[in-house]
Amino acid sequence: MAKENWVKPFYENQFHMMKDLQGFSERDEQAAKEIINQIGKDFSTVLEIGSGNGNLALGLAEFNKVVKTVELVPELVEFAKQNSHPNVTSLCGSFYNIDLPQTFDAVLYIDGFGIGEDPDQLYLLKRIREWLTEDGIGLIDIYNPPYWQKADGKQMYIDPEANVCRRYGYIHETNQMTDTWWYKDTPEESFTQVLFCYHVDEIKSLCDLAGLKVVEVIPGGAMDRDEMRFIPKASLSECLSYRIKVARSS
């Protein structure tokens, strides 16, 4: 499946560029509460793919959830293990080919869906279906085309010292967002992620093909580009990404 060469270097370098911001915080606890509310029923076991630094899993574990995570970058997995909880098992590997024979009450892919082409997304959605229990719930963040079209060319600084820069882009021919990071002093050494964006009807069609039904669409936040501040909740037409809540359709 997807063999995008940018993936591992980008997330490794993003981790280093944000190292001072990686600790568990109230924001991670709030993200865990939000997940619990959005699932909307009792659950105990969770699979999180593309789990990054492990803070969301740690937050869920604090609410007595048993969480298994899958992350591609070894350094991120080691970071997660150093700051982990007995309820969390952190695995290093690709969610495209890792062998996970068990099923879970909830499967999460937060902030990262869209690597590769449509067949890659379809394959991953089919895997998510396989990992869900019969009445399980999946939550997946989807990048929203209208936001990224407007964000094309916008640039910002990441850290308070303005040492790390970030620029958004949009490839109109393919509906892909680009997100480029670099250190201010070495702009020639940049790292870019490229992710497909989907309108709601497009992702619903892919989910249908994968044997999943979208039971709810939850708009996320957006950047106020004039004030350069993040707005936690925006409309579906304005949000940076939206979250789909999915269940097995058959």
TrEMBL record:
One of its GO terms (molecular function) is methyltransferase activity. Residues 46-136 form the Methyltransferase domain. It holds the Pfam family Methyltransf_25. SUPFAM superfamilies: S-adenosyl-L-methionine-dependent methyltransferases. InterPro entries: Methyltransf_25, SAM-dependent_MTases_sf. Gene3D superfamilies: Vaccinia Virus protein VP39. GO terms for biological process: methylation. Keywords: Methyltransferase, Transferase. CDD domains: AdoMet_MTases. This is SAM-dependent methyltransferase. It comes from Alkalibacillus flavidus.
